[in-house]
Amino acid sequence: MSMLETRTTSALLYLDGVHVSFDGFHAINNLSLTLEAGEMRAIIGPNGAGKTTMMDIITGKTKPDKGEVVFDGTTDLTKLDETKIAELGIGRKFQKPTVFESQTIGDNLLLALNVDHRVRGTLFWRETRAETDRIERVLETIRLTDARDRLAGSLSHGQKQWLEIGMLLAQDPKLLLVDEPVAGMTDVETHQTAELLKEINRDNKTVVVVEHDMTFVRELGVKVTCLHEGTVLAEGTIDQVSENERVVEVYLGR
After folding, report:
1. Residue 139 pLDDT greater than 50, yes or no
2. 95: helix, strand or coil
3. Most CB atoms within 10 A, among 1, 59, 82, 202?
4. Which of 213, 149, 203 lies closest to 181 in space, CA to CA?
């Protein structure tokens, strides 16, 4: 597809013919993927399939050797650095939660807001009503309203994951990239995380979830893309993908 055609697409995220090599190893090999605005997509695949590298490309950490990476119909992400890409509204949550443990939950969300963090801005900034309302909505979404005055360091592993998702939501992103959100969680936390992400998606947020927990992926009930050797191996519902012979062979096993 030409760039002119890409500019008229409804896709929020469009990757086409993307290649990345590291010392001769093809981490991403002719990867093409389209994500519509308001969609949630689960990305699965064996270790080394290219899932993390794909997210590195979307967020500007890694530049592709060739191929198109277009955001919101017109923006060529390959020409931008990580900061500029984040400012466009692409938020990424890594597998290990990174919250400010010595600060309260509420203060973590305040720090994450899109405000002027320069010294002058910090000295004179006052939380607006709109920002207060946004934090309240985020606290409700991440199930931590009653814990807003607790120190983040006192939270369970699952709650820290939710808080970090909330810190992204506070920035009002267009696209959330979430890496293995339920790793290390209890069954109850895993279920609650599925409900949390579905609620975020219903609020018209576009979400990409990279995950190995197939029970969790099934609970999300979304379209699934399986990567293998840096390219798309299969795509469809969880049943369609899990019944694919090649997916069974290289990832799921029998």
Report:
1. yes
2. coil
3. 59
4. 213
Question: Between the CA of residue 39 and those of 36, 42, 80, 94, 223, what are the distances in Å?
Answer: 6, 10, 24, 20, 9
Surface-to-core class of residue 239, CB atoms within 10 Å of its CB (0-12 exposed, 13-18 middle, 19+ buried) = exposed
Judged by average pLDDT, the poorest of 104-108, 127-131, 157-161, 163-167 is 127-131
Instruction: Count Cα atoms within 13 angstroms, Cβ side, for 184.
Output: 12
**Do residues 95 and 116 touch, judged by C-beta distance below 8 A?**
no
b/e code 133-160 from CB counts within 10 Å (16+ = b): ebbeebbebbbbeebeeebbeebeebbb
pLDDT confidence bin for 248, thresholds 50/70/90 = very high
Q: Could you tell me if 93 and 165 are in contact, meaning their C-beta atoms sit under 8 angstroms apart?
A: yes
In single-letter form, the type of residue at position 222 comes to: V
CA angle 191, 14, 17 (to 5 degrees): 115
Name the β-bridge partners of 176. Answer: 91, 207
Distance CA(145)–CA(141), nearest Å, equals 9
Helix H or strand E segment including 37: none
CA dist 45 and 138 (Å) reads 31
Tokens of 105: 């939950």
User: What letter represents residue 254's amino acid?
Assistant: R
